[in-house]
Amino acid sequence: MGIGKQAKVLTKKQSEMVLTHLGQHTQNGVRNQLIFLLSIKSGLRAKEIANLKWDMVLDCEGAVGDTINLPNSSSKGNSGRVIPLHAKVRELLIAMLEQAPIALPDEHIIKSQRSKSVSAQVIVNMFQGWYREMGLIGCSSHSGRRTFITDAAKKVSQVGGSLRDIQIMVGHSSLQTTQRYIEYDTAAQRALINLL
User: Fold this and answer.
1) Predicted confidence (pLDDT) at residue 46 exceeds the cutoff of 80
2) Cα–Cα distance for residue pair 172/81, rounded to 1 Å
3) Around 41, how many Cα atoms within 13 Å sit in the side-chain half-sphere?
């Protein structure tokens, strides 16, 4: 995929703007914020967001745990994995759990008003509508995933990790695929050259 065809990476300011908009100006604000954060803070694909069930995030006592345990059946190919939960994602999952009358383990977390689940295409359409409303050109449901991978790549060495850790978290079979998602940063390149 050429660089011009990839979904745009969101800046921190744009991400905060979308999150605020979803919380204040959309019906089902908590659900919509969760969908958005599952993309930019967990790196999930639209299909994975649509297929997320309570048993993938609940611990043995029925409380929201510390990870998303994503099976292959809910992902693309054999890219099931365990993803640590970001604090904001966990907070919204807890809020969703409190809103649910009963959270059955095999019940989908993301629902519509008319259905107990949504398709990946519905998630794609939601992102498309939100970005269009906000005037974010070139953004798609994959923008959150690219943002997650790019942000993680910039910070992974600070915690003693590597691109391999990111590859595992996002479920890529190849490190080269993960590298193609990372947005380059000319300011970082200039700063790096000045350090040499």
Assistant:
1) yes
2) 10
3) 21
CA-based Rg of the chain, rounded to a whole angstrom? Answer: 17
Residue 125 in tokens: 């359409």
Mean pLDDT calculated for residue range 115-127: 96
Least confident stretch, 26-30, 128-132, 180-184: 180-184
Per residue in 89-112, pLDDT (tens digit) is: 999 999 999 987 777 888 999 998
pTM score, two decimals?
Answer: 0.90
Gap between the Cα atoms of 69 and 91, Å rounded? 17
Among 97, 96, 106, residue whose Cα is nearest residue 53: 106
Measure the CA–CA gap between 69 and 71, rounded to whole angstroms.
6
Residue boundaries of the structural domains of the chain? 11-137, 146-195
Q: What is the dihedral of CA 88, 12, 177, 90, to 10 degrees?
A: 0
What CATH number is given for 11-137 in this structure?
A: 1.10.443.10
**CA dist., res. 37 & res. 46, Å (int):** 12
For 51, the token pair is 């297929």
